[in-house]
Inverse folding.
C-alpha cells in the first residue's frame, strides 16, 4: 500500500477505468487504485482505443472529491502535472518534458502518457497510461517511453512515484483550489503567444495561445478574436 492509496493489482483486465467504476458502485473508498499489467479494451479521450501491451503502467484512481461536476476537468490538469513531474524524475535532466492541452504529457515532443477522467455518479475516476517500456502506435502522434528517453524505472516504481506526486498535488488542489495547479500546468506547457492548431467539433483553427481560463478552458487568439475552447485537440 502506498500512503493514502489502496492498490488492487490485476495481471490482465479489459479496462482499469471500467473495473474501478464497478468497484465504485460497490462502495470502494477514496484512493482505491486499479493497476493492471495489460488492458485488452483500454481507451483514451473521445472513445479512442488505447493499445495496452505488457511493460507499461496502466492504472485508475478513485476520487470521492465532493466537488461539483463542473470542476471535474480540473482533475485532469492535476493528473497531467503529476505525470509530468513523475516523468521528469525518471528520465535524464536533459530530456524536455512538456504538457499539451488538455492533458497530454510529452517527452522530447513525443507522447509518453495518456489520461482519461470520467465521472462515476458522485465519484471521479482518473485513468493513466504511462509508457515505461513499450511505445504503442497512436494515430496522429509520435510516441516514446521512459526507457527510450534514457530513463530507468520499473512499472511499480513509476506507479509509486506517480501516486506520491498525485497525492501531493491533489492535496494542494483541495486546499488552495485550481489556481496553483493552473500555474504549474502553464509552467510546463508552450509559451503564451505560441502559434497552435486547435481541432474541435467545428474543424481546425489556428491561433495564438493565450493561456488557460480559470476553469482550464483553452484560450486562443483567433481571427475572430479571443475564444474559449472546452474540448478538442491541440498541435503546436
Amino acid at each position: 500500500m502506498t500512503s493514502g492509496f489502496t492498490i488492487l493489482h490485476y495481471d490482465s483486465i479489459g479496462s482499469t477505468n471500467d473495473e474501478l467504476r464497478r468497484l465504485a458502485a460497490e462502495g470502494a473508498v477514496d484512493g482505491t487504485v486499479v493497476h493492471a499489467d495489460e488492458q485488452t479494451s483500454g481507451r483514451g479521450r473521445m472513445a479512442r482505443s488505447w493499445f495496452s501491451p505488457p511493460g507499461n503502467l496502466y492504472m485508475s484512481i478513485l476520487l470521492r472529491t465532493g466537488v461539483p461536476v463542473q470542476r471535474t476537468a480540473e482533475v485532469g490538469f492535476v493528473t497531467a502535472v503529476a505525470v509530468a513531474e513523475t516523468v521528469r524524475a525518471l528520465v535524464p535532466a536533459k530530456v524536455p518534458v512538456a504538457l499539451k492541452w488538455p492533458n497530454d504529457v510529452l517527452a522530447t515532443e513525443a507522447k509518453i502518457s495518456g489520461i482519461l477522467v470520467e465521472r462515476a455518479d458522485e465519484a471521479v475516476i482518473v485513468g493513466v497510461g504511462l509508457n515505461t517500456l513499450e511505445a504503442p502506435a497512436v494515430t496522429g502522434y509520435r510516441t516514446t517511453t521512459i526507457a527510450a528517453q534514457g530513463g530507468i524505472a520499473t512499472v511499480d516504481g513509476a506507479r509509486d512515484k506517480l501516486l506520491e506526486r498525485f497525492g501531493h498535488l491533489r492535496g494542494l488542489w483541495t486546499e488552495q483550489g485550481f489556481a496553483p495547479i493552473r500555474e504549474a500546468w502553464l509552467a510546463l506547457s508552450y509559451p503564451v503567444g505560441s502559434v497552435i492548431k486547435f481541432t474541435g467539433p467545428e474543424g481546425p483553427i489556428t491561433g495564438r495561445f493565450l493561456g488557460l481560463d480559470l476553469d482550464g478552458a483553452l484560450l486562443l487568439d483567433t481571427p475572430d478574436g479571443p475564444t474559449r475552447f472546452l474540448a478538442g485537440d491541440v498541435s503546436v
